[in-house]
Design a protein that fits this description.
Oligomer: single chain
Order of helices and strands: HHEHEHEEHEHE
Number of helices: 6
Structural class: alpha/beta
Shape: globular
Strand content: 15-25%
Strand order of the largest sheet: 3-1-2-4-5-6
Radius of gyration: 17 Å
Number of strands: 6
Distance between the termini: 24 Å
Helix content: 40-55%
Length: about 200
């Protein structure tokens, strides 16, 4: 059983489950609907858009893609360069500390000046929700992403909900079951679908 880490767990799960249902509907016919997501970036874009529209408009939160969870604002550039990216993250300020101000401190460590507008590294504690996405059913790759989420789950001081979304209509049922079992064992909510 997945233990929700903050009160919005069910709302976010519902949004992700709706996307799953739509994907399933587009895959039930003999031919796959050409308008369903066919790449990871498609799914990430769908999640990003839905969270901004359906969830964030009533909350003081921010959604971003491909951000790196950093141990803290004092992390060295060597540590920052080796961090994995989270496909979709919801970020939350903590009292009078903002995630953007600490992201600016971390980004300044790269010494790129004004040539780069991104803030790719954010301390763990500002992560409200983390979502990893796969559209292929490689068990080894899926476990690696689940392990990344587990590390964030354990390290986060902000009660970060973690989701692993696996939508692969052509995947193996055995592989999906193995991925789901592994995710459940790590307290990561796996939302998956395959016709296999």
């Amino acid at each position: 059983m997945i233990i929700p880490l903050n009160s919005e767990f069910e709302k976010i799960k519902s949004i992700l489950s709706k996307l799953r249902s739509e994907y399933m509907s587009g895959c039930k016919k003999a031919d796959i609907d050409p308008n369903i997501p066919i790449t990871e970036r498609d799914i990430v874009a769908e999640i990003y858009g839905r969270l901004r529209k359906e969830f964030l408009k009533h909350n003081n939160l921010a959604v971003h893609c491909e951000v790196k969870p950093a141990p803290n604002v004092n992390a060295s550039t060597d540590v920052l360069k080796g961090l994995p990216r989270i496909d979709v993250a919801i970020l939350s300020d903590k009292g009078n500390r903002t995630w953007i101000s600490e992201a600016e401190i971390l980004q300044a460590k790269y010494k790129k000046g004004d040539i780069e507008a991104r803030f790719s590294s954010i301390p763990y504690e500002f992560f409200h929700t983390a979502i990893e996405v796969k559209i292929q059913s490689n068990v080894k790759d899926a476990k690696r992403d689940i392990d990344i989420l587990k590390q964030l789950y354990v390290s986060s001081k902000s009660a970060c909900n973690c989701f692993f979304v696996l939508l692969n209509a052509r995947g193996s049922r055995r592989d999906h079951d193995a991925i789901k079992e592994y995710g459940d064992g790590e307290n990561i909510c796996v939302i998956e679908y395959t016709r296999g």
